[in-house]
Fold:
Amino acid sequence: MTEPHYEPGRAQPTPPMDPTDPTTQIPYGAPPPPHRDRRPRVAAGRLWAGGFGTAVVVALVIVVGILLVRGVLGIPVLAAEGEGIYGTATTTQYALAGAAVALAATALLHLLLLIMPRPMQFFYWICVLVTAVAVLLPFTFGAALDAQIATAGINLVAGLCLTSILGSIGSTSARAAS
Structure:
């Protein structure tokens, strides 16, 4: 009788293996890895913190755009000419709407990161097309052409800001969890 051979971590002795014996099963490589969860992982806290930051930045971009257009260029956007540099409460509503759009885009990005095969590609396309709509929308309202162009410019800068910031945050939040 031969001396029993003990494998690390096993409680039962195993007989030594004879590679010439056809009935001996020789283990090849490491055991199969345990079942891994195939669902995508997203660092939701990082994503939503970035989303709230983006909402603040987009709102401030809109306010700065209004101040530039009304105060420096003298174009009456969102209010009559005598309303001052800031305009009226519609400027605040415009900025808050931009922040709300940024939060909705964050929710969309979170959903895309969870279910889509190439989430960032879809996100960029959706953002670019929504920005295009926001740029064209002022030309459908009855206002002076210079006010329409100024509003379209503000919408373009805000949309590009949202797309670039959330795009980079989405990429890093997807990688950080993996």
Summary: The chain is about 60% helix and 0% strand.
